[in-house]
């Protein structure tokens, strides 16, 4: 199983330093020019999962080793990477041109009710590679230039702008036909993971206090998929590197944060809608996964 590269690993390997705001509540975001990340003594990019998302504009001849596929790309290409899939780059010419941004999921989920998992390029088995012509390259490059300018600014709401630029990138990519011919059909584990993810996401967002999160355990999902729970757990761990329960609890925590920040429901109502029989159980769950209580999180 591939290892997982953390944001800390990324900064240490590329730059030998760590940004001061790496653990900020908003969720980490940063943007770079590709050519600035290839110092003569830079370590090679290893085949691994990352615990962050990455969107890259790359030019030249490259091979992307992505999950169980090797994808040859040439020219200007927009590529989306997610924490579920291990990958690495292999540069086959001397060109080092482009830009990329990295961010944690909470960069979006802490502020928006929508979920980035729902974007097709980030779904398990999705198509992350989009070839660009000269006009499209200019459009995408201009968006990255705006990010590079904004990340250095002192504007109070710059992260809202940066979030908008990334969202615009994703929607722009969806207007371009992905290179479907480069992809093999996902294996059985990938298909199970994709259906599990769809079933999980289909329960969100919680729109009213009477709506209830019902599929709360690995067995619940296994029953829906008509597979043994051990088979489901193996498939999801093999594909994502995380347990089924971890995915469920992470999504519950994300939705709990959104409900606390974006609704006026009391804690008991939120607790019920997320499937907890008692508010005390919800309080214990939330504190375990965030190190704070629901009431304290709401007033921050």
How would you describe the overall organization of this protein?
- It is a single chain.
- This protein is α+β, with helices and mostly antiparallel strands and 300 residues long.
- The protein is built from eleven helices and ten strands.
- Strands 2-9-4-7-10 form a five-stranded antiparallel beta sheet, covered by helices on one side. A three-stranded antiparallel beta sheet has the order 6-5-8, with no helix packed on it. A two-stranded parallel ribbon has the order 1-3.
- A hairpin with a 2-residue loop joins strand 5 (62-66) and strand 6.
- Helix 3 (134-151) packs antiparallel against helix 4, helix 6 crosses helix 7 and helix 9 packs across helix 10 (279-290).
- The longest helix has 19 residues, at 244-262.
Average pLDDT score: 83
If helices are DSSP runs of H or I spanning 4 or more residues, what is the number of helices? Answer: 11
The proportion of residues forming helix, as a percent range, comes to 40-55%
User: What is the SS-derived class?
Assistant: alpha+beta
Choose one word for the global shape. globular
Order of helices and strands: EHEEEEEEEEHEHHHHHHHHH
Measure the end-to-end span: 39 Å
Strand content: 15-25%
Biggest sheet overview: 5 strands, antiparallel
Order of strands in the sheet with the most strands? 2-9-4-7-10
Radius of gyration from CA coordinates = 20 Å
Residue windows where pLDDT falls under 50 for at least 5 positions: 180-185
Number of strands: 10
